[in-house]
Amino acid sequence: MIYFRLAEAFLSYREPEVRLANVLQKPPLALKAETVIRRLRDVSAVSVLVDDGQISEIHLTTESNRSPKQLVRDIESALEAELGLRVDHRCISIAQKKELAKELAEEEEIPELSPADFCEPARVPRVRFENISVTYSELQGHVKVELALDALEAAGFAEGSCDHHDMNRLIATATLQCVRQLIAEDCCFSLSDVEVMRLGPDDVVVATVKFLWGRTDRTLVGSTVVTQNLHQSIVYAVLDAVNRVFGNLRLKEPVEYELRPTSIRG
């Protein structure tokens, strides 16, 4: 058994400084997990700790310029695919080289709005609510949301189950579809969830939206108090989440007229 673990250690470890005493103390599960993780792209070094037969901690250094979240997903997928192990992402710790970490932060940084930005609406475009239409046919619900940005207008549609929670998600999805039509950048907004909850004397709508833009991967959160119309409040909660990044995106410009081919009769 000792000879087998020594051989496995020599095959899996690339760093000559590894002490054999430490290798012999590691359980086979830790060595196997380290071997799998080390084969991932740009991984410089890795150490896996096991407690009661379960992986408790994973520490690694990387030379990658990808975001830590992407590396965590790679680790989770590799361990599950090759060893059948599911690990909690909270036990994974990643250290990047200083130069690469600084470069990544500069590439992914999205400026947050300051109080001055809120005082000058002209600098931060805000999407306006225009109208919402919700209809039902048998077991299906149909939603149409209309928004505007200055002179630019957009309409989003969604249909699905008439279930109460599903209808709330349809409204939020149609709103995000509208929002995407107003943006010229190559980005993506996708609904994570929308909930209506009781806080004190008020009902509050909370919407979480996944925002992908280049190397940026963020979760945006918006909320609003339900005043009279719940459907309209759901739209406002989604807009509250996405409006805060609008100042960093290139928006579409309204088209005053459109030339179309005409038929010429002889």
Q: What's the name of the CATH homologous superfamily of the largest domain?
A: Alpha-isopropylmalate synthase LeuA, regulatory domain
The oligomerization state is single chain
The number of helices is: 8
The overall pLDDT, averaged over residues, is: 77
Low-confidence spans: pLDDT under 50, at least 5 residues?
1-7, 9-23, 112-122
CATH class of the largest domain: Alpha Beta
Give the total of beta strands. 9
Instruction: Label the CATH architecture of the largest domain.
Output: 2-Layer Sandwich
Pattern of helices and strands:
HHHEEHEHHEEEHEEEH
Categorize the overall geometry: elongated
Sheet with the most strands, sense and barrel status:
3 strands, mixed
What is the C-alpha radius of gyration, as a whole number of Å? Answer: 26 Å
Q: Widest sheet: strand order?
A: 1-2-3
Helix content: 25-40%
CATH topology (level 3) name of the largest domain: Double Stranded RNA Binding Domain
Percent of residues in beta strands: 25-35%
Distance N to C terminus: 92 Å
Q: What is the number of domains?
A: 2
Structural class comes to alpha+beta
SSE inventory with pairings:
Elements: H1 2-12, H2 20-25, H3 28-38, E1 43-51, E2 54-62, H4 68-83, E3 92-96, H5 98-108, H6 115-119, E4 128-137, E5 140-149, E6 152-161, H7 164-181, E7 187-199, E8 202-213, E9 216-225, H8 230-242
Parallel strand pairs: 2-3
Antiparallel strand pairs: 1-2, 4-5, 5-6, 7-8, 8-9
Helix pairs in contact: 1-3, 3-4, 7-8
